[in-house]
Prior knowledge:
metal-binding; S-adenosyl-L-methionine; Aldolase_TIM; menaquinone biosynthesis; globular; 4-stranded mixed β-sheet; 7-stranded parallel β-sheet; iron-sulfur
Amino acid sequence: MNVIIPSDNKQMQSIIDKVRNGERLTLEDGVFLYQSDDLLTIGQLANEVNLQKNGKKVYFIENMSLYFTNVCEAHCAFCNFRKDEGAPGAYTLSGQEMIEYVEQHFHPGVREFHIVGGHNPHVPFQYYVDSLKALHERFPEVTLKAYTAAEIDFFSRISGLSYKEVLEELMKVGLKSLTGGGAEILSDHYRKKMRVDKADVSQYLEVHRTAHNLGLRTHTTMLYGSIESHEDRIRHMMQIRELQDETNGFQVFIPLSMQPINPKAGIRRRNSAYEDLKTIAISRLMLDNIQHIKAYFINIGTQLTQVALTMGASDAHGTIVKERISHSAGALTPEGITREDLLWLIKGAGRIPVERDTFYNEIKVYE
């Protein structure tokens, strides 16, 4: 149903008309939306698009987040998870130690392990292969969604293998999908200022291109809320959109609201709820070729996630069990959530919860 009141602003009305006619939004359109104070119109338009794509269904998954190591050679200004080798709190788990951790926290229904960690130069690439293999052999029924594009680039550097060869080695031991992290903001200027000394823009995109060409479906992210401009954010989305036109390999786009614990990141306070909602809505409008936009409750909280589900988001993430990276950076949200709370969250927004697997196949619809 058309519930959007025609706008007195000619540019806003032009954007509304474009979206309804199936026309692609431009850089100028995206920047205008960020500069507009008409959040309700932007949110309603994003909701309209989402309802066309996904109806009232909101997806979630029973998953666990796992972190093999926090030792990392990169020194990204916004990260408080990384440690130097030998520093207090630094760790590198063996495959067996990770299995023991999972066995302590595992519960029936977990369908996915979300695996990321530091770029640890003190262990060989084979360590990462063997770690995945150990998990896959112990829990063959659980899908391995592992490593960021930045980690794949790191593995390539320490092994001398190409991206394709690295991915093929990991696929042999059970890798089924890549996580979306490491994108941050896809801008060389941003990455230099924020000391993102890992995969650059072209490398991040090339890893995902290679993964898609091998048949892997992947996630992608945008870490917003520090020094980047609105134009930087829109250009980021447009680069993702362009690769999706080419490969159709991204399953979901995940806007990640920056957490403020590290003053070196140039962050004085958290993003406002207004900015978080606007970013989710604009993501839905700009990324016309990606099926799902995720509202990541770990970063924006459960109640704001409910609102986001009416402003373009169609994925509420998953149970997680014990998230560490955002919480090490100052997130005040729960480290995990139960299935029952996820159902409450989604139904409370007037939506239909759908339990999914890693590939968005529907497991159960909770009417």
